[in-house]
Amino acid sequence: MLLKRLRKGYGKKLVKLHAWNAWIVAVLALTGLVLAGGFWRMALGEGRVWIKWLHVAVGLGSLIPVVYYLLLAGKHWKQLRGKRWQRFNVVVVLALLVGWLLSGVVLWQFRAFGPAWSNPALTVHDLLTWIGLPYIIYHSVTRVKWLKEQPQRRTVKAEPAAAADREAPYRDYAPGGPQPLYTRRGFIRGAIGAGLAITVGPSFLKWLGSSIGSGIGGGTTEEWIANDRNSLVPAPQPLPGSVPPSGGGAKGNFRIYTVTRIPAFSNDNWSFVLDGLVSNKQTWNWESFVAMQRKVQVSDFHCVTGWSVYNNTWEGIPLKELLKEAGVQNGAETVKFYSGDGVYTDTLTLEQAMMDDVMVAVMHDGKPIPSDMGGPVRLVVPQMYGYKSVKWLNRIELIAGTHTGYWEKRGYSNDAWVGKGNGFG
Ligand SMILES: Nc1nc2c(c(=O)[nH]1)N[C@H]1C(S)=C(S)[C@@H](COP(=O)(O)O)O[C@H]1N2
Ligand SMILES: [Mo]
């Protein structure tokens, strides 16, 4: 029987399994943190897409040890009779792996599932990481051999110690529960636990606050201007549809993404250019730009990494109107958008650019768009994934032929429609 064969040499197998699992979790943790960390968006560029595939592949691969363990689990479980702490540990690790795997599959196939699935999947994936990673770090650090051994036993020669260590994965901390705090080991574990709580805790609470809370912070327009790195004057005066926001206030939070440092602008160095294959090339300064007629619209915003912000009230100039004013010439095929960060670009076809809801936005929920969200001016393309919504927009050029945008160059699909994909974008 398969099971019987599996169980032969089962002790060694469990040790190996444990080691494999540790490596898988380590790789997933590292790649996952790189993918989530804003810093790496700048530093990695194309490498980020490879890391994403590595993360997905290893993540899918984690199914193997899980299934393998489940085949051996019966025997292991019996062996752990009475060892509540160890049984608890097994259940936690299994639950983490399965939870990460399921939510990860949804995030990987975000287009097939759509935002209604990918939003909760991302929350679950994050939550498991916030709980699971510190748990696993604690688990592995406190199990390092020297922590487990009594001071006098640490003098034992290398050979037997190594042999004893092989039993480590299923030796208990202490029968029946964790060590009391007043022993040396208990104290060190407690210290490590506290250290983790102190380092991870604040970011966790921040994340928790932002997942539960809605919208970006409160405050008045004056406060925003005073605190923002873009000090452009005069501030745009919101239309009635913006104050109060006709969408009722955004639900959810933007994760701030940038591939450069966040650029800062002032009246002196900011301009907006519309050029290329148009009859009236134009350059605006801030004063003339805020003087243009704006509109208000409510829309949802979706990112390919799984998060969405619903009911955004954007106020700005419909791109359609700008293009009409400019007089698009025959031969223009693509609308190319430049970010004032000097690096990021993206495109829409002329036809896509003429959609009613594509907006050159200057206000969000009745306030000037803060610099980290792409202010003073950002593009908003509600029907497409967020990477089309170029932040710090300062130039629109009409070109013949095509151009490949920043993320498209790095593996993202040029087709960014939300909810129209085939699942393999
Ligand atoms: N200039 C610039 N624009 C950008 C990006 C960027 O990194 N740089 N990221 C894009 C992506 S992938 C998304 S999801 C949204 C995120 O907008 P937010 O940072 O306001 O949340 O901006 C898009 N526009
Ligand atoms: Mo995105």
From TrEMBL:
Q: Which UniProt keywords apply?
A: Membrane, Transmembrane, Transmembrane helix
A Pfam family reported for this protein in Swiss-Prot or TrEMBL: Oxidored_molyb
Q: Kindly indicate whether the keyword Transmembrane belongs to this entry.
A: yes
Gene Ontology biological process terms from the UniProt entry: respiratory electron transport chain
UniProt cross-references to SUPFAM superfamilies, sorted A to Z: Oxidoreductase molybdopterin-binding domain, Transmembrane di-heme cytochromes
Q: Which InterPro entries match?
A: Di-haem_cyt_TM, OxRdtase_Mopterin-bd_dom, OxRdtase_Mopterin-bd_sf
User: Its domain of life?
Assistant: Bacteria
Residues of the Oxidoreductase molybdopterin-binding domain: 261-407
Listed under GO cellular component are: membrane
The name on file for this protein is Oxidoreductase
